[in-house]
Amino acid sequence: MMREFINILTEAATKQDIQDILAQNGYTDLKISGNKIAVLVQVPDGQIKDAFRFKVLQDLEGIMNAADPELDARYSPYRNISSIGHVDFWESPVKLLVKDKGVQGDKSAGVANEIELAGILQSVIDKYGSAHVTFVDPRGKSLTINNCTKVDISGRDAKGRKKADVVLVSPDRNLPISIKKLNAEAWESADTLFGSKARDIIDKLVDDKIVKLDKLETSSDAQPIFSLSKEIVVEPTEEEAMSAIFGSDLNPQGGIVIQTFKPEHFVQDGNKVKVECHAVITNKEEIPESHLMVWLLRNDSNRNSKALGIRGIRIMAVTLTRGIGRTGKKDVILVDQYGNVIDRKFDPNDEQDQEVTAKQLKQFDPEKTRVQIKPKGRQAVPRDKDTTPRQKRDK
Asked: Does 7 fall in a domain?
């Protein structure tokens, strides 16, 4: 009954809904037949062909649910319409599939993510036996591997704080690569990693009456959900920033490439492939200022971090522009690693200073009774006068 009631309130996914989300994420090469939408991707031949297709299908399921959770996208293993299964949507006849574009060894359109990038490089290897691959940015920073004979998508394993999306393999070395789209704002989710420190900082700011922590509602398991009056941005230590950005595997063995890939970003000459990127990062000096890392504490009613101990708050390692805005004037509370407020000029009449998220405004109600949760407490210490971003400082 409950599911039927929810269905009355929620419209089923339409083909146009799915196509719109696919287009927003770079998937424009489609084949539509009735209620079946097939995303066409370039994948290598051979035994790993279906493995690449399945990885793309998994990514599509995640993209759909992230774009609109009410679509209730779910992987279906049934092979009546595809050998690797498909993605279903609640109460909708639409089926989402992944099919091979059938182009091997040469550049093709529609590159949308790291799986398709891996597929293109592997198809070059399949055709020529090996590939010489160079990632380069306008600053001249580059990452190169010669005689690459394999593209390992198992490099997406995040165990041990690994960050690589793909690993390029040659007889001499492995090159782990993390791929970030231009609009990507998060380095990683950090509820557990930074939870305890975040709790100390929130307690201090609440005690100092710099931020309010309000009780919004009670969850289904009778636990209270809280909301911050403003987002909190925390300056990390250099060690924290390096760990969040590079993980355990990217420095010095590999690196990060930032780009939303389009066909013009790939320049191929036989088995030589140059991949043009917005930025190539192999060490702290190469991190663009826009992508310096900060901790962000924001409202999310679905989060319940045991390390933080405050339900309704999410902790993320994000880019500097996500944390304080493109102009550095976003209306947030900016603090150092100890919770000491870093003074910034804020003009309430400046439109650029009004980048408070809609969700934050919606959740904060100043008329609600402030609920103080039991603090853990932490003493602040004087802030280091060196204003250079920590990840740029010399050890």
From this structure: yes
Domain C-terminal end among 47, 69, 102: 102
Same domain, yes or no, for 211 and 358?
Answer: yes
Task: Establish if 370 belongs to a structural domain.
Answer: yes
The first and second tokens of residue 258, run together, are 């930032």
- Beta-strand runs (E) in 244-346: 255-258, 266-269, 272-276, 279-281, 293-299, 313-319, 333-335
Asked which of 73, 102, 131 is the last residue of a domain, the reply is: 102
CA–CA separation, 311 and 214 (whole Å) = 11
Residue 88: closest CA among 55, 64, 116, 53 = 64
How many C-beta atoms surround the C-beta of residue 77 within 10 A? 7
The one-letter code for the residue type at 121 is L
In Å, what is the CA distance from 161 to each residue of 137, 189, 278?
A: 26, 12, 25
With vertex at residue 167, the alpha carbon angle to CA 87 and CA 189, rounded to the nearest 5 degrees, is 60
The residue with greater pLDDT, 105 or 216, is 216
Residue ranges making up the domain that contains 298: 186-238+289-381
Residue by residue, DSSP assigns 40-108 as: EE---SSTTHHHHHHHHHHHHHHHHHHH-GGG--EEE---SS-TT-EEE-TT---EEEEEE----SS--
Percent of the chain at pLDDT above 90?
40
Q: What is the pTM of this model?
A: 0.65
Kindly report the backbone phi and psi dihedral angles of residue 150, in degrees, each rounded to the nearest multiple of 5, phi listed first. -160, 145
Choice between 40 and 213, residue whose per-residue pLDDT is larger: 213
Number of structural domains the chain divides into: 2
